[in-house]
Amino acid sequence: MLVDWNEFRATRTQLGAAFIRILGYFREDGIKSVAAIEEAMRARDARGLVMPAHTLKSEARQFGGERLGTLAEDIEMFARHCVEAQISPEEYLPRVVTLRPLFEETLAALEREANPLVQRGRSSFGRAVGY
């Protein structure tokens, strides 16, 4: 499941009017986290993978981004193992390569669902109002 829509709706309800702003922060932070993870992988820097993967995991799950959160958690845990074992994280390169497209797919789904025009269009299009 790409997005847990129940979690998404719960977060939207909890955040209220701040929801769109916080989703914008997820976009900004996510772009930075993905770039930092890619850069750390290029440098074979396991330590550099940990925090951006942790951040991406937490923020994705806040909005119901389950697949993205799971992948980020997998990268984070493996990076922690690499730091402890003092080994290179390069065997996770194929997973890191899938991170950006998954982030973009998840973000697009969240933004489509969050768009107020989409919400209005769904609820009222084609129905007579007041009859």
From TrEMBL:
Transmembrane segments: none annotated. The keyword Phosphoprotein applies. It comes from the Bacteria. Keywords: Phosphoprotein, Two-component regulatory system. Pfam families: Hpt. GO terms for biological process: phosphorelay signal transduction system. This is Hpt domain-containing protein. It comes from Sphingopyxis granuli.
